[in-house]
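PT: before anyone asks, these are the final sequences, not the draft ones from last week. 641 residues across everything. Please model them as a single complex and drop the result in this thread when it's through.
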Amino acid sequence: MINLCRNHQPQTKICHAEEHRDEESFQNKSYKTILLSIILILTMTIPVFGMGIQVQDEANLLDANAEARLTLELEEAEAKTGWDIIVLSIADAGGKTARVYAEDLYDANLIIEDGVTCIIDMDNREIALQTTGEAIYYLTDARISDVLDASFAAASSGDYESSFSTMITEVVACYDMGAQGNYAYNEDTGKITTYKSIEPIEAMIAVVLALVVFVGIGVGIIGKYRLKFGGYKYSPNNKSSVHLTKEEDRFVHQTVTHRRIPRNNGHGPGGGGGGRSTVRGGSSGRSHGGGSRGF
Amino acid sequence: MSTISLKCPNCGGELLFDPKTQNYKCEYCMSAFTQGEIESLTPVEEVTEQSQDTQEVEANLYLCPSCGAEIVADETTTATFCYYCHNPVVLSGKMTGDMMPDDVIPFQIDRKEAEKRFLDYVQKKRFIPKAFFNKKQIEMLSGVYFPYWVCDSKSQGTMDAEARNMRVWRMGDVEYTETKHFAVEREGELELREMTKNALKKANSELIDGVMPYLLKDAKPFQMGYLSGFLAERRDIEYAAYEDEINQDIQKYGEALLRNSIKGYGSVSVRHCNIEPKEKIWSYVYLPVWTITYKGKDGKVYYYSLNGQTGKVYGELPISQGRVWKFSGAIAAVVLVLGLIGGYFL
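LR: through. Structure below.
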C-alpha cells in the first residue's frame, strides 16, 4: 500500500510506511487510552450497592449492637441469595404508605436490580415487604403473607430487631423454595410475566437427555455396522393369507364412571401450580411486588 | 458318479450360464443358447467315471470331463471348477434322488454387476473410513448356489380376545368415562408361505440368511445347466431339524395375523390363542449368493454376501469412530439446546 502524503516525497515506500505507522500508532494509542480511562471511570461511578446502606434506621428502633447483628444477617442472606436486602424503619412517612415511601426513597437514588426491602413503619404502624426484580417471583403474595405473619408478633410486642431478623430468615427461606411456575401479575397493566429461568434441575435433565441421545445414536450406528441387531427377519407381508371361518365381536357390557373436576383457583393463565405475585408500577417506573400488615 | 459339463454345439467349448441374458454363453465362440435350445440340441454329456475294483473307492471321486483331472471338492459340493483346466463342472451324481433340488433361482446378477453393486453399496455408507473400499482389494468374489429349505404352511388358528372402547365427555363440572367391553373371537385358516431356512452346515448362516428375502415367485424348476459357471453346494441339514423352529414361527406369525384381523378398538388383549399347523410343504431350493472376501486397509478381512437376485448386500462394515461420534455429538448438541430452551420457558 502506498502511503503518499503531501508533505513527504515517496522516496522509499518502506521508510515512509514506517514513519506513518509510527504516527498512526501514536494517534491510535492516545485514543485507546482515553477510551479506556473513560470506561474505567464510568464503571467506578456505578454505585456499588450493599455497602453500608443495608440498615436504614430512620425511626431509631435499633441500637448499635442490634444494627451490627442485623447487618451480619443481611450480609449472609445477600451472599446466599445474590439479592440486595435492606432493612428500613420509618419514623415519618409523610402521608405515604410504607411501600410507597420505600419506593420513592430508593428508586430515585439508588439502583437495585433484585432485592427485598424489609420495612417497619412506625408512622402508619405497619410492617411491609417490597420486592424488586428477580425477588418478585420468589416472594409470591401467599409467601409474603406468610413472612408477615411470622414477623408480625415481634413487631407488635416491640421487639423490632427480632421482627426484622425473622423477615430476613423467611425471605431466605422463600429463596430456597424456588420460583418455578410463579408469575407476576401487574395490577396496573394487567400483564402477566412468568418466571423465566433455567433451573438447575432442568439444565440437568437437558444434559442427561443429550447424553442419552449421544450415546444412543453412537452405539446404534456402531451396532448396525457390526450387525449386532440381527439380519433378516421373516416378514409375512406378501407371503401370508388369512381366511376367517369365524369372526365374532360380541358386546359384553359397559361401565360409566364419573369424577368431579376441581375448580381452578387461579384466574390468570399458569395459575395451576404457580404462585402469583401482584406487582405495581413505582414512582420511578420500576414495578415492585410486596405486601403489608398493620401492627 | 457322473459329472456334467455343457459343450457348445458350434465349437465344443464350455457353456456357462450368463445371468445378464439368462441364457447359456460359449466363452470361446461367443454363441448364445436358451435353456430350450440346450435341451433339444445338445444332449447333456455325461462322463461316467470308472469305478475301481477295490472297495476303498471314495464316493467323492470325480473326474473332469474336459481334462480328466480329479475334481477337488467337499462332500457337499455339487458344482465347481476344475482345479487344473478351470472349466466349470457340475457334479450331477450328487444331485440324484431326493438330493435333486426342486427349484432354483438362477443368478440374475453377473460378476461385473455384482462387483459394481457391492462397491456402490459400500461407498454410500456414511460412517466408514474414507476411501476404505477399493475394487482391487476384493480378494475373492464367488457366485455360489446355496441350498435352502422353503416351507409353505397351512394352519388352523383360533383366538379369543377382550377388546375395549373408551369414550370421555364432560357435562358441567363432571367428567364421564364410558368403557365398552367386547368379547372377540376369531377362527380361520392361515397360510404362511416362503419361510426359508439355510440347509448347509458349513455355511455362515448369518451371512447367507442376511441377504434374504428372495422373490421366490421367480424360481424356476431345477436344471443342472444353471449351475454351470458357478459353485454350488448340496444340503446336509434335513428339514426335520427345523420342525421345532418352523412350528414356533407358525405360532408367532399366525398369532400376529389373527391379532391384525381385530380392528376398530381402542385396546385389545389376547386371552387365548391356538395355532395348529395342518400342512407343511417343504421345497428344496438353490438360491444364488455372491460371496465376497475383502481385505481391508486395516489388514482385517471382511466378508460380505450379495443376493444374486436382488442385489442386497449384507456384512459387517468397518467403522470410522470419529465420524460416528461427531455426528452423534451434533445431534446431541441440538437436543441439549432444545432442552434448555424448553426448560427456560417452562
